[in-house]
Amino acid sequence: MTTSYDPEAIAAATLDATRHNLFIGGIWQPAANGASFAVNNPATNMPIAMVPDGGATETTAAVEAAAQALPEWAATPAPARAAVLRRAAALMLERQETLATIMTLEQGKPLSEARGEIAYAASFLTWFAGEAERIYGMTIPATQAHKRLLVLRQPVGICALITPWNFPSAMITRKLGPALAAGCTVVVKPAEQTPLSALELAHIFQAAGLPPGCFNLITCQNPDAFADVIFNDERVRKVSFTGSTEVGKLLIRASATTIKRLSLELGGNAPFIVFADADLDAAVQGAIASKFRNTGQTCVCANRIFVAQAIYAAFAERFSAAVAALPVGNGLAPTTAIGPLIDAQARAKVERHISDALEHGAELLTGGGPAHEAGAGHFWQPTVLSAAHGAMLIAREETFGPVAPLIPFYDEASVLHQANATPYGLAAYVYTRDLARVWRVAEGLEYGIIGINDPIPSTAQAPFGGLKQSGFGREGGPSGIHEYLEEKYVSLGLE
């Protein structure tokens, strides 16, 4: 594969080793014992940076810094907090190209998608800047003339924010924006695969004038030491986590020690339902946008594509042809649509799911193997499987890769049953032009996010979160800031 870009030159121009340190109390510092670990480019399997490997000592220092900063930040007037968030958002957009390049280098997604994520990430800061100015209390009519009843809303306190590698900027700002807007201080732990985007955000907030200690950042390879400190320190009042359901269950157990508030955005198994009356071309393009964005490595991407039997053959033909045409390669190449998987473990899961599906009767329509021509990284051909069914691993588990299984269905009731037959309930998608069906299906699907003729429904001003084992709590929208606020009831006697 020939390219007109030089990834090493771009990396050298973009990445500055002096920027890669822990950020504690407004000070950039190495790990106390000097330990560090490599950040690899999944497109080349080569290291692009070294970052500190923090542990219990550094995490304790970060909590202490957040505790010291909390009283002043919580007392800062809402318009002043909002101004910091707006300045940070503006700086993100000003540095969009640099931030996007760093993201592509460490995460692998196409540069066009990385640019879009930076804009999306900045939108959370802008939205929650406005929400900071709308933290309203209440007065309640009293039953006795000499009483006045009030409700106050105040910041929860110190919050630990644990973010994943697939959206290394947006998953931070979606948590950081409401936390800072509410008056909380934070300790952030980004995924070990993608810490560079988080470090850049810390630099941006420092430049935006956020007081020292309000935003602390710990990079680490092993999260156990970080978690032990966070969950056993009573000063940390809330933990927000995006990741697997298995880890989420561990965090629920750990939170019992000090009764911490949790927000959990966990695994998914999204159905994508195409009814016979759907606009076929729109459904094909919508399925591609949902399934193959970020190489299929999103918690809300289509995992099971249900297609009405009446249009199944036509959909399968158009969809597989469009998928086969998606260019695979390094995300820095301008034509790339499918970048690398994040690591060898992710590629092994994709291969396992495809092998299991073929063993259980699926038919391979396109793809199905590693994309060797793309380079030395963890590349996989975008793949479409026909005749999939619920007994296959690919229908029961979240694949997190560029594989689309097509499942035929015969009527509305049966597809709703199949779509809901999973412990997960994060996102679902429906293509239909029948308005009555829109209401029935939206009400019948057991999912927290539903896109009707919309493959990418997420936006800063709307609530994001799941049902069942996909977690609890909401990020984004007016409800997003409530996750970081405590409610106090005050009964005032006038006599």
Automatic annotation (TrEMBL):
Q: Which residues form the Aldehyde dehydrogenase domain?
A: 28-490
Enzyme Commission identifier(s): 1.2.1.16
Record InterPro entries: Ald_DH/histidinol_DH (IPR016161), Ald_DH_C (IPR016163), Ald_DH_CS_CYS (IPR016160), Ald_DH_CS_GLU (IPR029510), Ald_DH_N (IPR016162), Aldehyde_DH_dom (IPR015590), Aldehyde_DH_Superfamily (IPR050740)
Biological-process GO terms, alphabetical? gamma-aminobutyric acid catabolic process
Where is the catalytic site?
Answer: E265
- The keyword Oxidoreductase is annotated on this UniProt entry: yes
Keywords (alphabetical) are:
Oxidoreductase
Please name the Pfam families in this protein's record: Aldedh
Molecular function GO terms recorded: succinate-semialdehyde dehydrogenase (NAD+) activity
Regarding protein family, the annotation reads:
Belongs to the aldehyde dehydrogenase family.
Q: Specify the protein name.
A: Succinate-semialdehyde dehydrogenase (NADP(+))
Q: Which organism is it from?
A: Candidatus Viridilinea mediisalina
